[in-house]
Amino acid sequence: MTITATQPVLKAQPLGHQWPTLDPFLFCAHHDDSYPAGDGRMGVQAVEFEGRQMGSDFSRKDGWSMYHGDSVPGFPGHPHRGFETVTLVRKGLIDHADSLGAAARFGRGDVQWLTAGQGVVHSEMFPLLDTEAPNPLELFQIWLNLPAASKMVAPHFTMFWDERIPRLVHTDGNGARTTVTVVAGALEGADPALAPPPESWAAKDASDLAIWTLLLEPGATWTLPAARGQGTRRMLYFFAGEQLRIGNQQADAHAALEIVAGQDWQLSNPGSTPVECLLLQGQPLNEPVAQYGPFVMNTQQEIMQALQDYRRTQFGGWPWPQQDPVHGSAPRRFARYPGCSEDELPPAAAAIGDNPQAGLDAAL
């Protein structure tokens, strides 16, 4: 017997820097930094450091943070084991480097998906390329758990270029549009999602996993389809805009909204500015979680083993001359995969013959 819910929202929680998540997701952070003009070396001018706890600056003073960066903001080399990071960049650029030998400069709609598995070390730096104007950066970083059987798989690095990510554009009867960007999961009317890493929970049909972003123009209405799987859980993060209406309920403040996943719900934007949301859904793993900082396993014994393994092996070592590498001053996007000597370029860049050697040659 199917019971039809009358209220779509099961729980509402306010949004901070780190957003609440549901199994199989572990973590979701929204970084929205209004960085100033760069110093010509892709860093922040030293005069801006006053009043900050350098090395661990999460202050958002003047609208931005240095995080663990010294001169270039970001996160120098640090380890992970037992889960995946999915990084969606909405504005600005990120320079990635890792212990696999992979490197990338990506952003402006691109997504990086990194399976840490048995262990990887990576850095994520935010180069400030513009020396004459501000360097805004906005991104989501999502941590997706790995099943116990996959926690010790080989690490895997991949890029989803913005030009290849499927989108559904729906125009309602009033001519207002809703755009859904499909990073993962099936959505009728959109092209099939790009293939997630092979050992990801997202690669399993039973996971019913979805990562979407939604943009509703003022006055737009769109029906969010029911999840496919019984037991799937769904979180809708309303993070931009004035109001969001879901079925017969209205959110007047930005919030993490756990939604009844097994039914269609009409979403509408009654406000005068665009509404934006992030949707994360999936079948729970329903496995114990033991976490110590950047290590996520199933037991404390496995955490202790992770610490010992990292101290002993450094997860393969660090092949870069510094802990916070950046990839030159050219505002180009590229990825170099482990074991490859040539860069992969976004489709548009490849079409105009961008130099495939320029990125890493400037960093080494």
From TrEMBL:
InterPro entries (UniProt xref): Pirin, Pirin_C_dom, Pirin_N_dom, RmlC-like_jellyroll, RmlC_Cupin_sf
Listed PANTHER family: PIRIN (PTHR13903:SF8), PIRIN-RELATED (PTHR13903)
Domain of life: Bacteria
Name of this chain's protein: Pirin family protein
Pirin C-terminal domain location: 212-316
Domain Pirin N-terminal: 53-144
CDD domains in the cross-refs: cupin_pirin_N
Pfam families: Pirin, Pirin_C
Family of this protein: Belongs to the pirin family.
Parts of the chain that traverse the membrane: none
